[in-house]
Fold each of these.
Amino acid sequence: MSSTRPKVYNFGAGPSALPLSVLEKVQREFLNYENTGMSVMEISHRSKTFENLLNKTKHDFKTLLQVPDNYEILFMQGGGCTQFSAVIYNLLAAKRQQIPEEEEFNPPLDYFVTGSWSAKAADEAKRLYNNVNIVIDVKKSKGSFGSIPPKEEWKLSGSKAAFVYYCDNETINGVEFPFIPDIDPSVPLVCDMSSNILSRKFDVSKFGVIYAGAQKNIGPAGVTVVILQSICR
């Protein structure tokens, strides 16, 4: 089968364009992966072959982003939108473990609303929970999305919050954080990096949870990468 094809420049939001060399390697190994006599689509997910593939993928990803040893890499289904709710359930449970059982438990969830994706995340939080604090809502305060207000305008909950969420790059509205928000260090910082992960170096240790749908900036659709600090498990 010929590997030649017309040269097309793909500027779509997703799926992301893949290097030809990667596609050619997939093509070569699709029928016989690592000389197993089977396609990678056919091998058992319990096999040593798949275990090696998974471990190498995690190792390479951690190396690229210089992920500290106290973080886990998860490959999940459901896209970034599933993480809107998964983050809430899991981090509220983690926060519950830090508070004596006899104390009232209703910590705020802090959300930066800077574009369409963070607005969707905040709406899901409000659907699931009764104490959502909007740190900033740029559309409400400025009339439209398009900027990141200065810290003086933020309304953070401080150490009381179960977590602080933001979307690093709002593709629909053209807004990208040029910095990592400065928050209380005891509170997990949650970030949706679906559209710009692997595009630049950043300090992973400042985050509790990072998630990214692969289809925007990593590879084909169908998997969501979650980088999770062990303390948030």
Amino acid sequence: MLNDVKKLSPEVQTSHLEAFHSTLNQFHPKMTAYSYTGTYCRHALAIVHFNENIKRDAKKTKDGKVYYSIHYPKYKNGDELVRTVPVPPSYNYVKDLRNMLFKDTKASMKLKILEFLKNVPAPLSSQFSNKVDRLTALDNYHKRQEMTVQLYPSLSEQDQLQLTASGPEPTNTPKTRCCTKCKKPMKGHKRGQC
């Protein structure tokens, strides 16, 4: 416990970083692929939205009292978790962006777009120099499809092969006991008869 207390940072906490990542995942979901330009724009929107709404005031009643939400999570074993309810997020930055967009001339917008496109990296697929043309790729595909692959035998065939390889099945019948002197079976053999 003392080692953990030593490692606590008095200045930097990561809760805001995690909140930003949550906001970023809403604007740019990981399961959807976007171009570099689309990704850049979505990240910029997420940053502007997060910065505008990072420190929201608490929601208040008409009387001026603060709203609170109380939860009872399992990890607290019945203890309460009290939080203030923030006001809904604001989207005032949309008006600012719209005003900025309509104030610019088409010529200045084209210059900004060209300046941005200079920094766009080449697609990842352009890094592979050993790409083959379409006809060669199709020929290689058809050759692979024509190849026959030696498959393993089915499970039942494997069991049969193991049985034949191991030899005859051992019988569980015990060996009949015989007399050591006359070598006749002991069943029905009386002591002292030999």
Amino acid sequence: MKKVYFIRHGESEGNAGPIRQGRSSSLTQKGLEQSEIIAERCEKLSIDSIISSTMKRAVETAKIILARLKKPVEYSDLFAERRRPKEQIGVLKSDRTALDAEKTIRENFTVSGFRFSDEENFDDLKTRAGQVLRYLQKKPEKNILVVTHGFF
């Protein structure tokens, strides 16, 4: 039986700071330390390969894990964090426009076909989830570690 271990990246500047993060947010010192802890724990698993999101915070986490496990790492956009609308990227978390967008999206998230602006909507996520499942099923490795995000 195949086992897939999903790991969320360590704390990022975007998680800790006042600005909503995009793709290029780095790990904080705390995030680096968290990644070291999870890498140490992963040494107890029989991991055959590592797959990581292409977003900087996940790549940084994966490199820390790779240094301990010495396994091949593959990078894939399939495991990136959900794309948020442009109204929410690079602005203060308290920005009224961003908060209004978040509220509208949350209230309509499962409404088929709903799209606020340029974000990845529920239909997009379902499609990508299907692609992820097919991708993982085709992998020959039995124990796969995936470095990804809190909200797929």
